[in-house]
Write a structure and sequence with these properties.
With 309 residues, the chain is mainly beta. It has a single domain, classed as Neuraminidase. Helix content is 0%, strand content 49%. A 5-stranded antiparallel sheet has the order 8-9-10-11-12, with no helix packed on it. Strands 3-2-1-25 form a 4-stranded antiparallel sheet, with no helix packed on it. The radius of gyration is 18 Å and the shape is globular.
């Protein structure tokens, strides 16, 4: 059985309505829980999707870390909030990961990754990605100082992934999966514009090719591409808003690895699809909402016991 945790954002929602939440899903039984409904009243309402909803998900010492736009929330396994963290250089956060007792967070607004030391509970690491045409460089900064980057959102960095080989970064406008080895940054592989969740996988890379409405695995030996699920327009709800305020259906975002052959992808309206890379079609698909505004953001394998009342 595969148990998943997903976060979502709702674009174009009105104040007082839900802007998304957190879901737990058993892909075998289709059992669904929604332990968090994100309906806070103090959310910044400017911009499409920006400050509404919940984003990246990570785990450390039996706790669940979930990103909002400019704050990291910590929950126990019953989804009772036990802590939260803010930093001036967190803005429009997207995905995050845990590596060597640090939580690394993509701060999209600052073209940066900010590191929270999970032992000292202090922000002690900052890395800005800068570009000059096709060339990339990095600049380290102190996230607790006043010499950090400007809020430009030039590259729209939306994913960070760490392993023994380094830190991998990508975004809508990087057009590459970049690897930081601790000293310099280089291009691991080229990517199309508009991708989400790009990461090394097996002998290649795995990513949501969001602009092309596809989930892709590409390696020297093989290529796989899956169309993001779409629904007949008459089945969608909340389609009467101005287009600039809603997420289109088929927007692929959210991705996690279950095994060497099985991966899971998210899309809008909030849909979770299970893919076996030895097959040509998704092996399972679960729809959480037909509200076209409701889009999956973060997605991870749930590593703990299933919550009980």
């Amino acid at each position: 059985m595969t148990k998943l945790i997903a976060s979502s954002v709702v674009r174009g929602s009105n104040q007082g309505e839900s802007h998304g939440g957190v879901y737990l899903l058993d892909t075998e039984t289709a059992e669904l829980l929604q332990p968090i409904d994100w309906n806070k009243m103090d959310i910044d309402w400017e911009g499409r999707g920006w400050d509404r909803g919940l984003r990246g998900i990570a785990f450390f010492n039996d706790n669940v870390y979930i990103a909002a736009s400019d704050e990291i929330f910590v929950f126990n396994q019953r989804f009772e909030q036990v802590a939260s963290y803010r930093n001036p250089y967190l803005k429009h956060c997207h995905e995050m990961c845990v590596h060597q007792d640090h939580l690394f967070i993509t701060s999209t607004g600052y073209d940066s990754v900010v590191g929270l030391n999970l032992t000292t509970e202090e922000f002690d690491w900052g890395l800005q990605l800068v570009s000059d045409g096709p060339a990339y460089a990095v600049r380290r900064f102190d996230p607790c100082g006043d010499q950090g980057p400007l809020q430009l959102n030039k590259l729209h960095i939306n994913n960070v992934y760490c392993d023994e080989g380094g830190m991998y970064l990508s975004g809508i406008r990087t057009e590459a999966l970049l690897r930081f080895n601790g000293k310099a940054v280089g291009v691991m592989a080229t990517l199309p514009q508009g991708v989400h969740n790009a990461q090394p996988f097996r002998d290649g890379i795995l990513f949501n090719d969001t602009r092309s409405d596809a989930l892709r695995f590409e390696s020297p030996a093989s290529r796989k591409a899956y169309r993001i699920p779409k629904y007949p327009p008459h089945k969608l709800t909340h389609t009467d808003l101005d287009d600039s305020r809603i997420a289109r259906q088929g927007f692929g975002r959210g991705l996690c690895v279950v095994s060497d052959n099985v991966v899971v992808g998210g899309s809008s309206p909030s849909t979770i699809s299970v893919y076996d890379l030895t097959k040509d079609r998704p092996t399972n698909m679960l729809t959480l909402s037909m509200d076209v505004r409701n889009a999956i953001h973060g997605l991870a394998v749930w590593p703990y016991d299933w919550p009980t009342a």
